[in-house]
Design a protein that fits this description.
The complex is a heterodimer of chains A (190) and B (201).
Chain A: H1 2-13, H2 24-29, H3 34-63, H4 72-94, H5 96-102, H6 105-108, H7 113-124, H8 129-157, H9 169-183
Chain B: H1 2-12, H2 17-21, H3 25-30, H4 35-58, H5 68-90, H6 92-98, H7 109-119, H8 124-154, E1 156-157, E2 160-161, H9 176-200
Antiparallel strand pairs in B: 1-2
Helix pairs in contact in B: 1-8, 4-5, 4-7, 4-8, 5-6, 5-7, 7-8, 8-9
The chains are: A mainly alpha (190), B mainly alpha (201).
């Protein structure tokens, strides 16, 4: 039950993009087509779940016992960077189709602050190993949902008559604001 | 000297990271519920940006081409850890408000972008001014967004109450949706001003 609450909390109530403001760059940059949005979301979710396991082990079995929590940021970012590299090599060998579809978005996951941010939040919340994994899965799915919603709306937006100064990013931010307003309806659910 | 000033001003207006390049947007939205938080986050980022630009510029001939990205990340992570620890000790209140967005300076695209595009190619003094200009551009953008949100959302500015306590304010501007809408409208405003300026000149 508690795991379910963590999951729902990460997907809806504290949606990583629309409520916690993590991962805004890919949210604005990769949300022009639903297909790429889905690919990006899936790749990020995968990296998040793997990172959740690795950073949890590092934090509680290496950094804490040796009194090195101040090295948290550099260590975590290196783990994420090498993880992304590993995923990239793995996909390249095993499923070249998916690898080509994701293209440039794969290496960019390293600088997605949702991944590092979520590892830091999981450590702050002192989650257990299983809880961290579920939290990572929820965070990734929440990111994917936000990205898909935004991409769907932006695809329709091409046919709309937007005032000139607002065209492009301006209107995208206002749409994100309205989406965020809708997601604030989930507040108090957990 | 002229080139230095040009580099410095570039970050403040022409290539303003927030309104023009639109990179490093997470802290822009997350910590600007008041003007003061905006200033704090802006200055913290400016420090990391300037120090890492200087160090990367010094090391630019030492860092091997193939592993440059991990090297930059380590340099940036070091300085953001410094800021994190110093702020935790000296400004605990601000540190609590900014929360995880201080360690997250590491993944702010502005830093990586300047390291890759500028600091790794130019002499130290130019890199320092470029970092400072970009940092100040980022700081004023954050302060402006924070000021607008604070005035609309709480009726105050830098913590000074502007309207009576009982007056109704647009509370939504202090909340996440208000952040997105404010930034959207400010970007539109900035586009309008730039178009006017270009027509005038």
């Amino acid at each position: 039950m508690e795991l379910f609450l963590i999951f729902i909390g990460a997907v809806f109530v504290n949606n990583f993009v629309l409520v916690r403001f993590l991962g805004i760059c890919p949210f604005m940059g990769v949300s022009k087509q639903t297909e790429t949005a889905l690919g990006m979301g899936a790749a990020t979710t995968f990296v998040m779940v793997v990172t959740a396991a690795l950073t949890w082990l590092l934090q509680w079995y290496v950094l804490e016992p040796f009194g090195l929590p101040f090295l948290q940021t550099p260590v975590f970012i290196l783990v994420i960077a090498s993880m992304v590299q590993l995923v990239e090599m793995f996909l390249h060998k095993t499923s070249p189709g998916l690898y080509r579809a994701l293209g440039i978005y794969l290496p960019l996951i390293t600088t997605n602050c949702a991944v590092l941010g979520f590892s830091l939040i999981a450590v702050q919340g002192a989650y257990s190993f299983i809880q961290s994994l579920i939290f990572g899965l929820g965070a990734g799915i929440g990111f994917t949902i936000a990205l898909m919603l935004m991409a769907g709306i932006r695809e329709e937006l091409r046919f709309a008559d937007v005032p000139k100064p607002l065209a492009g990013t301006g209107i995208a931010f206002i749409i994100a604001g309205l989406l965020s307003l809708a997601f604030s309806g989930f507040a108090g659910l957990v | 000297m002229g080139a230095l000033i040009k580099d410095f001003l570039n970050g403040i207006w022409n290539d303003n990271p927030t309104f023009r390049l639109q990179i490093g947007l997470c802290p822009v939205l997350a910590v600007t519920s008041t003007a003061l938080n905006g200033v704090g986050m802006g200055l913290a980022t400016t420090f990391v940006l300037m120090c890492s630009s200087i160090l990367i510029s010094i090391l630019r001939n030492v860092i091997p081409e193939k592993v440059r990205i991990p090297c930059y990340i380590i340099v940036i992570a070091t300085f953001s850890t410094v800021v994190d620890l110093v702020m935790h000790a000296m400004l605990p209140d601000l540190h609590r408000v900014l929360g995880i967005f201080i360690p997250l300076i590491v993944v702010n695209c502005i830093l990586m972008g300047r390291a890759e595009a500028y600091a790794s190619k130019k002499p130290v003094i130019y890199a320092a001014f470029d970092g400072l200009g970009m940092g100040i551009g980022f700081t004023w953008a954050l302060t402006l967004i924070g000021a607008v949100r604070e005035m609309l959302g709480a009726g105050s500015l830098f913590g000074v109450q502007l309207v009576s306590d009982t007056a109704a304010t647009f509370g939504v501007f202090s909340l996440p949706p208000g952040a997105f809408i404010t930034v959207g409208l400010l970007i539109a405003g900035m586009n309008m001003i730039s178009t006017r300026l270009r027509k005038a000149s």
